[in-house]
From TrEMBL:
It comes from Nesterenkonia halobia. Its EC number is 4.2.1.46. The keyword Cytoplasm does not apply. The gene is rfbB. This is dTDP-glucose 4,6-dehydratase. Its cofactor is NAD(+).
Length: 336
């Protein structure tokens, strides 16, 4: 149980979801935050702009660096571990950083949490469960067997299993959450939704992998942050909570919605080379989180959430412009 004014160590807090959580914590609690982030291509100090300096401090460093991690974990009341290599396409091009950060980084933090008795919350993904058929009546539950498909999701699965083992073998006070696809402001333009929005802002047609029938279960990043805070406050140690907002939509429909919201014809996009091993469908059953912890999503209208996200990218070109050319060059090389 967290005290009302605690000190949180948020790893990866300069990335998309981690920075959302830091903003959320500052707005909704009295906790202080130390962000530990190595500012890879995916991390940006600008994502923490406007936050009060007396409550949020950025430490630039690597979660796999035990010497740097140890004193930060010792000083924290709880660690919230977001830092990861997070993009499937990158993991297919070169898996090495995924093993180092996602596996060794999580191991390093767990060892520090064990040594100092620090509460630990591990942020993970629904992708650890593999994928579902389009007509599968079941969704993912905490009991679904692990079956990851990509180098990214297999390293996330490995990190989850480390957390479970450190709870059972060493008594580390940890919880895990596995969330579905997030959208919202400050997401790197390599990801599906911001890539299409910024393509359109640049006068380029959106790019759909394959036929685009793959389904993702979209949740607004603010709803994810609210769920993580709730788990920190009231989650049971050793438990896994699945986070999702019943937001299943296929990729083609997402692109059509973005196009029409941006004043273009719904069929104004290109089909490009599919992702190897591309997971077909993810879907979360969040009953445990809703019933046990009383969490409910606030963003239940995907079109309206997308409209706000489009407006954010339109209004914040200086945030994303520096990422765009390199990302598109990488995609062009991969045939995407
Ligand atoms: P992101 O790529 O936007 O951000 C990752 C952050 O981690 C960046 O700020 C980066 O600089 C930092 N980082 C990377 N390696 C590091 C290292 N070795 N040491 C310290 N910092 C490092 O990722 P995201 O989309 O915000 O995802 C955050 C977490 O949430 C990840 O663990 C991911 O698996 C999980 N997740 C993401 C989604 C999603 O839809 N994006 C859904 C479910 C779970
Ligand atoms: O499910 C949670 C996961 O969601 C997180 O664990 C990952 O960190 C996060 O990146 C995300 O993984 P996906 O692979 O689902 O997200 P991505 O944004 O890369 O792609 C979403 C879907 O859109 C996927 O089916 C591939 C497709 N796609 C992607 C891009 C970049 C396209 O059709 N065109 C594109 O240009």
């Amino acid at each position: 149980m967290l005290e009302a004014m605690s000190s949180l160590l948020v790893t990866g807090g300069a990335g998309f979801i981690g920075s959302n959580f830091v903003h959320y914590v500052v707005q909704h609690t009295d906790h202080d935050v130390v962000v530990l982030d190595s500012l890879t291509y995916a991390g940006d100090e600008a994502s923490l702009a406007g936050l009060p300096a007396d409550r949020v401090r950025l430490v630039v460093g690597d979660v796999a660096d035990a010497e740097q991690v140890d004193p930060l974990v010792a000083a924290a009341d709880a660690v919230v571990h977001y830092a990861a290599e997070s993009h499937n396409d990158n993991s297919l091009a070169d898996p090495s950083a995924f093993l180092q950060t996602n596996i060794v980084g999580t191991y390093t933090l767990l060892e520090a949490a064990r040594k100092h008795g620090t509460r630990f919350h591990h942020i993970s993904t629904d992708e650890v469960y593999g994928d579902l058929e389009l007509d599968d009546p079941e969704k993912f539950t905490p009991e679904t067997p692990y079956n990851p498909s990509s180098p990214y999701s297999s390293t996330k699965a490995g990190s989850d299993l480390l957390v479970r083992a450190w709870v059972r073998s060493f008594g580390v006070e940890a919880t895990i959450s596995n969330c579905s696809n997030n959208y919202g402001p400050r997401q790197h333009v390599e990801k599906f939704i911001p890539r299409q929005i910024t393509n359109l802002l640049d006068g380029v047609r959106p790019r759909l992998y394959g036929e685009g029938l793959n389904v993702r279960d979209w949740i607004h990043a603010d709803d994810h942050s609210a769920a993580v805070l709730r788990i920190l406050e009231a989650g049971r140690i050793g438990e896994t909570y699945l986070i999702g907002a019943d937001g299943e939509v296929n990729n083609r429909e997402v692109i059509e919605t973005i196009l029409t919201e941006m004043g273009r014809s719904a069929d104004d996009f290109d089909h490009v080379r599919d992702r190897p091993g591309h997971d077909m469908r993810y879907a979360i059953d969040a009953a445990k989180l809703r019933e046990e912890l009383g969490w409910e999503p606030q963003f239940t209208d995907f079109r309206s959430g997308l409209r706000d996200t489009i407006a954010w990218y339109r209004d914040n070109e200086s945030w994303w412009r520096g990422q765009k050319a390199e990302v598109e060059a990488k995609y062009a090389k991969a045939g995407h």
